[in-house]
Write a structure and sequence with these properties.
Blueprint lengths: L4 E4 L9 H16 L3 E6 L9 H14 L5 E5 L4 H13 L3 E4 L3 H13 L26 E4 L6 E6 L3 E6 L7 E3 L7 H11 L4 E5 L6 H10 L6 E5 L2 E2 L15 H6 L4 H10 L12 H7 L10 E2 L2 H14 L2 H14 L10 H8 L6 H12 L7 H7 L4 H14 L5 H14 L5 H12 L7 H8 L1 H18 L2
Parallel strand pairs: 1-2, 2-3, 9-10, 11-12
Antiparallel strand pairs: 4-5, 5-8, 6-7
Helix pairs in contact: 1-9, 5-6, 8-10, 11-12, 11-13, 15-16, 15-19, 16-17, 16-18
This protein binds one RNA strand through helix 4, strand 7, strand 8, helix 5 and strand 12.
Catalytic activity: tRNA(Glu) + L-glutamate + ATP = L-glutamyl-tRNA(Glu) + AMP + diphosphate
EC number: 6.1.1.17
Protein name: Glutamate--tRNA ligase 2
RNA sequence: GUCCCCAUCGUCUAGCUGGCCUAGGACACCACCCUUUCAAGGUGGCGACACGGGUUCGAAUCCCGUUGGGGACGCCA
């Protein structure tokens, strides 16, 4: 049994797409489960659309997700010698030939075939020529692969079983351009061969490329690898997921406050399941994931479920883990956690009440920055006649507490409620608005403990003064 | 147009080795409980086997057809 070797082979024409990330995830999990090797290859033969920025975005996305690779990244543009060698092998064996057709001729051919309601395909004009034809000759000929004309090819797929394609449906695909550079279907075969890839896991939009590639493997004298074509991810309109459906870049989800493990959890469940279990850790997934259990049908991306999973992972994580991911969001808001309560402690109070890190950062600002104003509705509802006396009472009691902890603070609040003959909410809510500026915060005792005695006393006094000046 | 893939609640899914399915779970939505707030949690509700035919004592499950959806048909990947 040879070692399993898989690969992720993105084209650097943009960011790391959600769909690509899911493909990478399935390959990565399959590899890790079986103790294999995960190869990263950058397919950049499209010189016009590939950019270094896109390469960096892909590498950054992979790193953020934690999808580490064992080999590479290999760049296809650095392997042209290898492709040339294999091209020459096919030419020498008569398995490939030069095609002198002009682009104009091919375009006309395609248009005529479509007018006849036929499948557009190369008509084989140069297939058996010894040299250039007498007319309509391209300046630089391309190289085409000599596809068998009869019979069929079977794709054995780990997810779909055997899928059969008639050779008469295929045509002689271009494997090298006029400038000599190879095209995708050729490079992918050569690379997977030379990199010893044993399992190709990719989107099922490539299922129809596979019969051509199997012919190429066989022409080069090799057995094809195992294939698993995983279903697409669709947008809400049922089409392939794209920008018009919202965020589709992995790093965009990072920026919107998602944890990498939450996104991975969501993506793995979009097509794979393990009974009714919904929440998985990455280590757990490595143990459980089985490529043969991936579903056949495409799934629709649903941000609502992803948000819930993010909430589940936030709640279950160690506070220091969340604190590390939260720090950059506070920095973006001009906040230095060193100037206030320990961020880990803040996270502990907020973990059950935020679906994203963006939300958690926004809701935690008041710990580090005195609110400049009170929410109008919250103030109107909770700052009433009599509130100033309650706040000043609490302020005084807070100042005299022997120790500043949640239990002592809770005692002050319940004592004040008794002293003023009101329910606890009539004390807690004004305190909440006073220190946070809003009607929402963690439990008031924990909130005030974190804020500190000095800052609490100052904010409560300030609010009492505001009430005297603005209420009644 | 040709070929390939696919079809269970609004979304993700369990179930597909016929009987255990008056099809279960999660998310979302609605209601109630808990509760100083927001959440979390608990309980309940709403909600699906695309349609037709066949095989069978019996079909979500097997077969055929229709319908609908996705993909490929680039000198992109």
């Amino acid at each position: 049994m040879t070692m399993i070797r898989t690969r992720f082979a993105p084209s650097p024409t943009g960011y790391l797409h959600i769909g690509g990330a899911r493909t990478a995830l399935y390959s990565w999990l399959h590899t890790r489960r079986h103790g294999g090797r995960f190869v990263l290859r950058i397919e950049d033969t499209d010189r016009e659309r590939s950019t270094p920025e896109a390469v960096n975005a892909i590498l950054e996305g992979m790193a953020w997700l934690g999808l580490d690779y064992d080999e590479g990244p290999f760049y296809q543009t650095e392997r042209y010698d290898r492709y040339r060698q294999h091209l020459q092998t096919l030419l020498d064996a008569g398995q490939a030939y030069y095609c002198y057709c002009t682009k104009d001729r091919l375009e006309r051919l395609r248009t005529e075939q479509q007018a006849r309601k036929e499948k557009p395909r190369y008509d084989g004009r140069c297939r058996d020529l010894d040299g250039p034809p007498s007319e309509e000759v391209a300046d630089e000929p391309v190289i085409r692969f000599r596809t068998p004309l009869e019979g069929h090819v079977v794709v054995e797929d780990a997810i779909r079983g055997k899928v059969q394609f008639l050779n008469s449906e295929l045509d002689d695909l271009v494997i090298a351009r006029g400038d000599g550079s190879p095209t995708y279907n050729f490079t992918v075969v050569v690379d997977d061969l030379e990199m010893g890839v044993t399992d190709v896991i990719r989107g099922d939009d490539h299922l129809n490329n596979t019969p051509r590639q199997i012919h190429l493997y066989q022409a080069l004298g090799f057995e094809p690898p195992r294939f698993a074509h995983v279903p697409m991810i669709l947008g809400e309109d049922g089409k392939r997921l794209s920008k018009r459906h919202g965020s589709v870049s992995v790093l965009q989800y990072r920026d919107e406050g998602y944890l990498p493990e939450a996104l991975l959890n969501y993506l793995v469940r979009l097509g794979w399941s393990h009974g009714d279990q919904e929440v998985f850790g990455v280590d757990e997934l490595i143990q459980l994931f089985d490529i043969n259990e991936v579903n056949h049908s495409a799934s629709t991306f649903n941000p609502s479920k992803l948000q819930w999973l993010n909430q589940q992972h936030i709640m279950r994580a160690e506070p220091n883990h969340i604190a590390r991911h939260l720090g950059p969001f506070l920095a973006e808001r001009g906040v230095d956690p060193a100037e206030g309560p320990a961020l880990e402690a803040v996270v502990r109070t907020q973990q059950e009440r935020a679906k994203t890190l963006v939300e958690m950062a926004d809701n935690s600002l008041f710990f580090y920055r005195r609110p400049e104003a009170y929410e109008e509705k919250a103030a109107r509802k909770n700052f009433k006649e009599g509130t100033a006396e309650i706040l000043e009472h609490c302020q005084h009691c807070f100042s005299g507490l022997p120790s500043w902890d949640a239990e002592s603070i809770h005692g002050v609040v319940t004592e004040a409620a008794e002293a003023f003959d009101v329910k606890m909410g009539k004390v807690a809510q004004p305190l909440r608005v006073a220190v946070s500026g809003s009607a929402v915060s963690p439990p008031i005792d924990a909130t005030l403990e974190l804020l500190g005695r000095e800052e609490t006393v100052a904010r409560v006094g300030q609010a009492a003064e505001w009430v005297r000046q603005n209420v009644g």
